Fold this sequence. Notes:
By secondary structure, the chain is of the alpha+beta class. The protein has helices at 29-38, 44-48, 61-79, 120-133, 149-158, 181-190, 201-210, 240-249, 290-301, 336-344; strands at 5-6, 8-14, 80-92, 96-103, 112-113, 135-136, 140-144, 166-167, 173-178, 195-199, 214-222, 225-227, 229-234, 253-256, 268-271, 275-278, 312-316, 325-329, 355-357, 365-368.
Amino acid sequence: MTAWARALETGWVVDGAVPGPDVDEFAEPEEVTVALARTPGPSLLAVQHPHRTPEARGRTLTEALPGARRLLDDLLSASYHQVHDVVAVYEVAGRTIGVLCLIDPAAVDGQVRHSEQVYPDIVAERAAMLTGLGRATSAAMLVPIGDGDRLTAVAQRAVVGRPPAVCTPDAHRLWLVGAGPAQDELLAAVRHQPLLVADGNHRVAAAAAAGSSLLALVTGGPRLHIGAIHRSIVNSGLSVVDIAAAWRRAGLTVRDVPNPEPPRVPGTVTVPAGLLVVLPEPDGPLPRIDHGVVEDLLLGSALGLDPEGPHVRVVPEGHDPGPGVDALLQLAPVPLADVLAVHEQGRLMPRKSTYFTPKPRSGLLIAQL
């Protein structure tokens, strides 16, 4: 396992802007479908979601993948240039810096450790995409378990005085580092300690399921931020009055509060329509992650809604909750200390409970798998 993090044997670096709309802007499949309908030209978004394009006409992902692979070939020829035996130092939005490299799938659940549970259907879809495309178009974000200062210092030192190979208007910068002592030092810093998945638990699980290498940004900061991920109830036929009554019947303390702000510390949930819910005292190991209580009690037991079903939507902080919203359940961000404590106990947090930013931009560097 000494080489579980390694350079890209073959990759492609974008020459200008990534083709098409911002791949990373969309949280829900419905948003992707709308964006593809509005921008029908060739795009990386169409490569990543070929069964959601207007041309798909109800085809399955398996049926749409050959066309996606041909489209990716065309985009790589037109908008990218090929590189070999490189890692990349990546400064994300001017706030955090790290190393883009490949991670061996055998390292998952060993040197690379999940932080959250996952949705099996999303893992299966992403594994099929990796197998069908044979290339990784987006990276998971991994953080050292422990001190990340060494990795940050090595990455910063590797690019001093060097112009970036990629520089976007919103301060994403990418430097390529070929074979040699600087690359060896970067990879040694990546392998120095185990890594925790900050963003991309589904990508990591999909790579392991497909037996494919994982494209990953490994970063120790310095300015990573954990935002909140909320839940919305959509197209359920329930009013806020119905929801509040059901929660009260379930024994929850529900207060009428005009225009409540999103909570900043765990323990309560707010609904902008005028509710504040006090979550019950923890009855299991600490720290408790509120998202599990919301999915099991507020949504499942009290309202009879499947947290994985069509009436529950994940809404990252700052994102539009979309159409058809009956109620938005606002949760507090999970403190980093709680993330690390849950991992130390050998537990996994509920799926979609942390929103690490800034996120690596998809499509700047594409890796052959």
